[in-house]
Amino acid sequence: MILNNMCKPAKALTSITLVAVTTLGMSMAHAQTERLAFSGGPDGGTFQYFSNGIATRLSRTMEGVEVSNMASAGSVENLRRVNSRDADFGIVYSGDMYLGLNGKLTNDTRKYRNVQAMSYLYGAPAHLIVLDGSGITDVAQLEGKNIAVGPAGSGAAASAQRFFEGVGLWDKITPQYIGYNQGASALGDRQIDALWVFAGFPNASVIQAASSNKIRLLQVNEAAEKGTLFNDHPYYATVTIPAGTYPNVDYDVVTIQDSALWVAGRHLSAERVHDSLQDIYSEEGLKFMSSVSQAATSMTIDSGTMGIVTPMHDGAKAFWTEQGKTLSNAQQ
């Protein structure tokens, strides 16, 4: 009897110990989950589709990683968030990366040195949209007009300012700092005269505008070549939006584009960045991204370092070197 009584507390102690060990194990597993933030873009924009897609894919496939998608005004805000570690990943235009690194962003001389490129995602062309019955057929006719240029702090708004400065119209238009979806609605309601969308095509907001009204896309590149844009901002390139991309737009639109880049903070380990690229640029990863956005068909191993004119993250350098890429001096 004495022996039995002595054994009972031992059993209770063992049970308590098992619970404690189990709880400790769960806590350690929870603590080992690396929680990362991906700063994307406004609703309806291509940035948000890409950031949500990458965040979802990495969270599902990479053990011990949970990536949350953050809404954002766009490129410049993403640059600032990643630089300050409020986000770990982001999407930033190559132009904003270049200007930010050199302290040349509009009204911002700060040098953003904590953000580094991982890969090229897609080319982001400028859409300059008017209603077909407005009588506006040329960029020069936008003088004195109300133009939606994207949210304040966005890459769209920054690119609009560069373009309109380059053609001598920035101080002759009235910019409206509203998002793409709101801008498409405002164009249809005749509250604005033109809508600037700086995103991969086909873009949902442009489709929205074209589905409600007959629209015209202006020839942006022609105006840019007459002005100073390409001299002032050499990272812009000429691109064609093919006829038929949007309803009733049955002609090629020659415009300008910047490159949307996947970026990371310097604080992320080289291993984490390398493995993230390895996952997304796998055959399965690229197939998944193409299901997220048609613009993701531009994501290939061949195009992975296109458009990058600033230093790359060490993890990205390692990954792309493994893929046989020769990095430029600017990317080193």
Stretches where pLDDT falls below 50 for ≥5 residues? 1-30
Instruction: State mean pLDDT (0 to 100 scale).
Output: 90
Radius of gyration: 24 Å
What class do helices, strands and sheet pairing give? alpha/beta
List keywords for this structure.
alpha/beta, disordered N terminus, 332 residues, ten-stranded mixed beta sheet, 41% helix, 10 strands
In short:
The chain is of the alpha/beta class. It contains twelve helices and ten strands.
Describe the overall structure.
Helices cover 41% and strands 20% of the residues. It has 332 residues and is of the alpha/beta class. Strands 1, 2, 3, 4, 5, 6, 7, 8, 9 and 10 form a ten-stranded mixed β-sheet that branches. Strand 1, helix 2 and strand 2 (65-70) form a beta-alpha-beta unit. Helix 6 packs parallel to helix 7 (204-212).
